[in-house]
Specification:
The complex is a heterodimer of chains A (562) and B (586). Helices cover 25% and strands 21% of the residues of chain A. By secondary structure, chain A is α+β, with helices and mostly antiparallel strands. Chain A has a 7-stranded mixed beta sheet. The radius of gyration of chain A is 28 Å and the shape is elongated. Chain B is of the alpha/beta class and 586 residues long. Helices cover 40% and strands 11% of the residues of chain B. In chain B, the strands form 3 sheets. Chain B has a 4-stranded mixed beta sheet, with no helix packed on it. Chain B has a 4-stranded parallel beta sheet with strand order 7-6-5-8, with helices on both faces. In chain B, helix 13 links the parallel strand 6 and strand 7. In chain B, helix 19 runs antiparallel to helix 22. Chain B starts with 12 loop residues before the first helix and ends in a 15-residue tail after the last helix. The chains are: A alpha+beta (562), B alpha/beta (586).
């Protein structure tokens, strides 16, 4: 592999790497706007001009780092010469003379390429004093589609968004119109930017020209706390940054993971956090009054009373009459503890309920696109942890949700209260309610939670940590973005409490200790540990014996259609 | 899948027929894209032109229909349509006149009548002031006005090479006349020599590209010839749009077969079977005459499946631009040829490696290719014998316009002095004093009369702080306002900047605004420094050469005519009268 020296730091890069990427490897950030590692190189912003010498011979002009590819030894790049600084300064001036400088009312402020590079490479005063700035009257807030708003005045014509729709989304809704200083971006008159990945253009827009309808004016970005997380919209498990202010999630942004979602995520996934604000929250443990039948009122209670009641009920019931209904929203660790609970006095019924949702596909670099069909992130993890799958006999999720399975149960434990559409469907809830004693864990105060004999408020996705196993059997870890408040507790803690009532060895568990336990026990996770789990996740070695729910469903559908 | 959903707007019957005529009949059901149409992307511009010629503008329905047929996302098609100045996207009357207000015409007092559109240079500088009129309809009219220019100044003169047949009055619309005047002998000779020998001869002649960049033609050809990837393409750059330049038009209108022969020899030398001639949209007559000449050449077995019965296959196509100077930049031309916005590509890769449709491509100017038959017939030594030195060889066309007595295209041995050239063009118009001249088209820095004895070859002009470029000489007399002239050129470059790269998009715009301010008395003492600084920030940093071209005139104005800027600032206005020479029909 050729070696290249950038500002006296020598790195070895793969032949064909461009100087911007080589610079990143050497720890030198070469400023750029139009270059994006997944989009074609157009070299048009001219911000990445650098000085390149080939074996000591300086190239006559400054070169654009994005379109200069290291193919052989002997290149020496400088980004700190007076010429380069002068060029960057000149370019910043060009960018800014026609920019409205409306940072105080711009959503991008705080994460804006113009602000950052002005600060680093620009000058603080303007020589554009006598002329009028170029404006696009009537094009300051054009909704390009449902999710993206364009302010043409702020655009720096880098064309990343256009190339995104042409090369990544493949839909080509955006175009570059007119010529010269009047160039603008837009959709064909009367058409919309409506592909499922549309909001990605907001992420890649280096300035405030494209903003997200969803996030518009929601928060100044410097107030946001950001935590690495995983999207729960489907089984792809797009890596995201969960951005919140004091527990109020403001947006999801895709986080780069070349194995899963590359730089992208779908618009649906970005909207999934809205549930936490929109739907009613279960805030306190609730229990049906002592000795009451199905008609007695449900009252708020304390955690220990509630857990004591559940413990007593489980201990007093023969395992064959207990059923556990898990969901694809459980973390693998939670599912593992549930499975343990289900087996504590002998095998009970265990199942995982997952909705089949619309299909979401994320294009990837040098890999086939990844598609999610299930509407939950972790059906695979829950099943591997022992909560379901083919080897688990007994009542299935279908028996419980659509059949009369629940009526045969003395105790039914459902986790969680928002496991799918059925939790909000009165008929399905009525069927589950046929169990003599219904315990529901969950964050949402859904009709299912309201029907429960014991309802236990547990942390939602943003308030807990854990792992999900995605559609390609990749286990990925996510962090807690903020703590649960009030009486809400992480499910791991609750289950650990409950299990320790049977066996003290289960006390005081955390996600990390549970993961390490399950890794030592389950074949699929062998060799993994919480601490050493790579940031991009780890592919599980799962024998093909476990069929994909969605595959089976697709097959059924195919048979039905023939 | 691109988003090709039906738009609400449908094309009118006339538009549909016009577009189908350009693309071939629609095979897809219900106006959907037929499989074979997906390979016709390069016909997008012809389709849009066809619709415009029929109804006078490109409606949403027509644009939608063309994009549907070619499987181009409508946003992209709209981007292409809006790129070209001749394509109208808003309804307008079918009869449109574009009046040239560019430097050469401005010097001769061009005014824009009400209802007409001001236009950048139309390449009719010797007929200044000039205009271009299009009338849409079932029988569309496109005419260059005045239709006939002054006669060739060197008519009847012996010793000419490139202009020999034109000077002798050989009928350009007859291939027989061309053949009788010695035409296609050179192609025959090239066949006998073989590709390697032809290549050697052209390299040996040291022919430099005549389009402006002066790149050695032989080197360019050899680079493509040795590319293992096939096919190879030839693109003839006939997008002559640099203000003041009109030499290629003369060659195409009056000796089309010479160009065809040159193209054919080039194709033979680099083993290309396809040649495109990209003609600027406003050159209506050139396109018509070349079209006719091509037809005759096919009929006479000079093109087609077996050139001169040799088995060498060669097809030539004419592709017409639609009003974009930047399409004269070679990679911008390739993009335009492929049916895209004419935005220059990032280089490398150079066209010799990745050119038209991704294949190795030679791109040569009309005049360059017209030199080739003479080099093959008379040999490299003859060619080298003409000119000033080792590097600057051969005969050269100079298009001279502005304040000279007999403007027009002249053939001189390269390296003739400017004084001699001016004399041969009848001297200064009305016996006035020379104030300034541009030696090589709008992008060349302006020179002062102290350079009157300058040898007009590539290296001498460069040494004098300008460039020979396309050898379009614009002469200005003492009544000329240099600030106004440069302001017009800045306006041209701003108008023609493609807008993709920052320094050119923003810098040319800013320069136009500052120049405009200066001319109208709003200038300040610091503007000279500001202009130089803008020039510095554009120079060498734009994606293609247009940025560098735009700063040439501005820099030379500040450097060589500082007193005139000062005068404008001090007097808060322009001290020169508007040129009004042609008021009495002179």
């Amino acid at each position: 592999m050729p070696k290249v020296t950038i500002n006296d730091r020598t790195v070895e890069v793969e032949a064909g790497t461009n100087v911007i990427d080589a610079g990143l490897k050497a720890g030198v950030l070469i400023p750029h706007y139009c270059y994006h590692p997944r989009l074609s190189v157009v070299g048009q912003c001219r911000m990445c001009l650098v000085e390149i010498s080939d074996n000591g011979k300086k190239m006559p002009k400054l070169q654009t780092a994005c379109s200069s590819y290291v193919t052989k030894d002997g290149w020496s790049v400088r980004t700190d010469t007076p010429e380069v600084a002068e060029a960057q300064k000149g370019m910043m001036e060009f960018f800014l003379i026609n920019h409205p400088l409306d940072c105080p009312i711009c959503d991008q402020a705080g994460e804006c390429g113009l602000q950052d590079y002005s600060f680093k490479h620009g000058v603080a005063f303007s020589r554009f004093q006598y002329e009028d700035k170029r404006t696009y009257p009537g094009r300051e807030r054009i909704p390009l589609g449902a999710n993206v708003v364009l302010n043409m005045n702020r655009c720096i014509q880098c064309t990343r968004c256009i190339r995104f729709t042409q090369e990544i989304a493949g839909t080509g809704e955006l175009g570059f119109f007119n010529r010269g200083a009047r160039v603008e971006i837009g959709t064909f008159p009367g058409k919309e930017l409506s592909n499922p990945l549309a909001t990605c253009v907001v992420d890649i827009c280096p300035v405030g020209a494209l903003t997200s309808t969803r996030f518009r004016f929601a928060e100044r970005v410097w107030y946001l706390d950001k935590k690495p997380s995983i999207c729960t919209g489907c089984e792809v498990g797009c890596n995201i940054t969960m951005e919140h202010r004091r527990g109020d999630i403001k947006r999801y942004k895709p986080r780069f993971n070349v194995e899963v979602n590359d730089y992208w995520m779908c618009d649906y996934g970005r909207s999934t956090h809205e549930r936490y604000k929109k739907l009613p929250r279960l805030t306190s443990p609730r229990m049906r009054a002592e000795g009451g039948n199905g008609n007695a009122p449900v009252v708020n209670t304390g955690w220990s009373q509630a857990l004591d009641a559940v413990h007593a009920k489980l201990a007093a019931t023969v395992p064959g009459e207990i059923a556990f209904l898990g969901s694809g929203f459980l973390t693998t660790e939670e599912a593992y503890l549930f499975a343990k609970l289900a087996n504590i006095g002998g095998p009970s019924h265990r199942a995982v309920a997952v909705d089949l949702g619309p299909e979401w596909t994320i294009p990837r670099h040098q890999r086939p696109p990844i598609t999610g069909r299930e509407a939950a992130p972790n059906r695979r993890g829950a099943e591997l942890a022992g909560l379901g799958g083919v080897e688990v006999a007994g009542l299935s999720a279908d028996d419980l949700l659509n059949g009369d399975g629940a009526s045969r149960c003395a105790v039914l434990v459902v986790c969680d209260s928002d496991f799918g559409k059925a939790a909000w469907d009165p008929e399905a809830v009525a069927r589950l309610r046929q169990a003599k004693f219904l315990v529901v864990f969950g964050w949402a105060d859904s009709p299912l939670a309201q029907a429960a004999d014991v309802a236990l408020p547990v942390a939602h996705h943003g308030e807990k940590e854990g792992t999900f196993v995605n559609v390609e059997w990749r286990v990925q870890r996510f962090e807690r973005a903020f703590p649960a408040t009030g009486q809400v507790r992480p499910a791991i803690e609750v289950l650990s409490d409950l299990l320790s009532r049977f066996d003290a060895g289960w006390a005081h568990l955390s996600a990390s200790t549970v993961f390490d336990r399950l890794a030592s026990e389950l074949q699929a996770f062998a060799g993994l540990s919480w601490r050493r789990l790579p940031a991009t996740g780890a592919a599980l070695q799962v024998p093909g014996a476990v069929p994909r729910l969605s595959d089976a469903a697709a097959e059924t559908a195919r048979e039905a259609s023939q | 899948m691109p988003d090709l959903r039906l738009l609400n707007a449908e094309p009118s019957e006339a538009e549909r027929i016009a577009i189908d005529a350009a693309l071939g009949a629609a095979n897809g059901a219900n106006g959907r894209t037929a499989r074979d149409d997906r390979t016709k992307r390069h016909l997008l511009l012809p389709a849009l032109r066809a619709a415009q010629q029929r109804v006078g503008w490109v409606s949403e329905g027509a644009l939608g229909y063309a994009s549907r047929r070619l499987a181009v996302p409508p946003a992209e098609a709209y981007g292409v349509a809006s790129f070209y100045a001749l394509i109208a996207l808003e309804e307008r009357p079918p009869d449109v006149t574009h009046v040239c207000t560019d430097l050469s015409c401005m010097l001769k007092g061009a005014t824009v009548p009400e209802g007409a559109h001001p236009s950048p240079c139309l390449g009719l500088c010797e007929r200044a002031p000039a205009s271009y009129r299009t009338i849409a309809g079932a029988r569309p009219v496109e005419e260059q006005i005045p239709a006939v220019g002054p006669p060739l100044p060197q008519a009847g003169q012996p010793g000419l090479r490139l202009l020999r047949r034109i000077a002798a009055g050989v009928d350009p619309e007859s291939i027989d006349a061309y053949i009788q005047a010695g035409g296609f002998e050179s192609l025959r000779h090239a066949r006998e020599l073989g590709p390697g020998a032809v290549l050697r001869e052209v390299t040996e002649s040291r022919l430099l590209g005549r389009g402006g960049a002066a790149f050695p033609t032989g080197v360019k050809w050899a680079a493509v010839a040795q590319q293992p990837a096939l096919p190879h393409y030839i693109v003839c750059n006939a997008d002559e749009s640099e203000p003041g330049t009109f030499k290629d038009r003369l060659l195409m209108e009056n000796d089309p077969h010479q160009l065809i022969e040159g193209c054919a020899i080039c194709c033979f030398a680099v083993q290309a079977n396809t040649c495109y001639i990209y003609i600027r949209g406003e050159y209506t007559k050139s396109a018509a005459i070349l079209e006719r000449a091509l037809k005759e050449a096919y009929e006479n077995g000079l093109l087609g499946d077996s050139v001169l019965g040799s088995g060498f296959k060669l097809n030539m196509y004419i592709h017409r631009g639609a009003g974009a100077y930047i399409c004269g930049e070679e990679t911008g031309m390739l993009e335009s040829l492929e049916g895209k916005r004419g935005q220059p590509r990032v280089k490398p890769p150079f066209p010799a490696v990745v050119g038209a449709f991704g294949a190795p491509t030679v791109i040569n100017n009309v005049e360059t290719l017209c030199n080739v038959p003479h080099i093959i017939t008379r040999g490299a030594d003859w060619f080298k014998g003409i000119g000033t030195d080792e590097r600057n060889t051969g005969p050269k066309l100079y298009a001279i316009s502005g304040h000279v007595d007999r403007p027009g295209t002249y053939e001189h041995p390269i390296g003739i002095t400017f004084r001699e050239m001016l004399d041969k063009a009848g001297g200064m118009w009305k016996g006035r004093q020379l104030k300034a001249f541009i030696p090589g088209g709008a992008s060349a820095p302006i020179l002062k009369p102290d350079q009157i004895d300058l040898k007009m070859d590539f290296d001498s002009v460069a040494k004098a702080g300008s460039m020979l470029g396309s050898a379009a000489v614009i002469v200005m007399d003492e009544t000329t306002c240099m600030v106004r002239s440069v302001a017009r050129l800045s306006k041209f470059f701003n108008h023609e900047s493609c807008g993709q790269c920052t320094p050119c998009r923003e810098g040319t715009n800013w320069m136009e605004l500052v120049m405009d301010r200066l001319e109208h008395g709003q200038g300040t003492e610091r503007d000279s420094q500001l202009l130089l600084s803008i020039c510095k920030n554009i120079g060498g940093q734009s994606l293609c050469a247009l940025g560098d071209a735009a700063i040439g005139p501005v820099k030379s104005l500040v450097d060589r005519f500082p007193e005139e800027i000062e005068q404008h600032v001090r007097q808060r206005g322009c001290p020169f009268p508007q040129p009004r020479y042609f008021e009495n029909g002179a």
